[in-house]
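Researcher: Please translate sequence to C-alpha cells.
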Amino acid sequence: MKALNVETQWVVALERLIDRLGRWLGLIWLVLMAVILVNVISRYVFSQGFIQLEELQWHLYSTGFLLGLSFAVTRDVHVRVDVLRERWSETTRAWVELYGILLLLLPFVALVLYAALPFVLYSFQTSEISQAPGGLPFRWFIKSMLPLAFLMLALASIARLAKVGARLFGGSEVFGENNLKQKTVTLP
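Model: Translation complete:
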C-alpha cells in the first residue's frame, strides 16, 4: 500500500473518528432498551407512568438514529436500491454515488443545517422545556443533535466523496479497492 498523502490522511482520520463514535453509539440502544423496560414495568406492574422516561426514550432513539447516519455512510451500510445497483459495474456504481452525494445528499444536508441552526438557537435562547408536566428540561440539548448529526453526515459524505473521486479519477489504490465496497458492521 502506498504512503498516505495529506488529502487521504484527513479522510482516514475522519472515518476513524466517526467509526469510534458509531461503535460507542451502539451502546445507546442498550440504554434505550433498559429505559423502555423500566417504563413498561413501572406502568403495568406498579401502575405508575413517568413522562420523563417516555421523553428520554424519544431522546435516546433520535440521538442514536441521527448520529448513526454518519456511521452508516462511513461504513457504506446505508439503505439503497440494491435491485438496480447489483447489476451495475463498479465504475457505474461509483458515478451514481458521486452524483448522488453531490446533487442529492450534500444539498439536503445543507438545507437541514440551514433550517436547524435557528431552530436550536431559538430553543436555547428561550430555555425551552418540555410542554408536558414533569417533562425533561433543556429541550435545546436534544434539538442540538439535529445540526450535530447533519454536520457529521456532511463530513462523512465528503470523505466518501473523496474515496469515490479517487476510484473514478485515479488513486483508488491509496484507499484500497475494498474500501469502496460494503463492509460488515461489528459491534464493539
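Researcher: Any highlights?
Model: Residues 26 and 159 are 22 Å apart (CA to CA).
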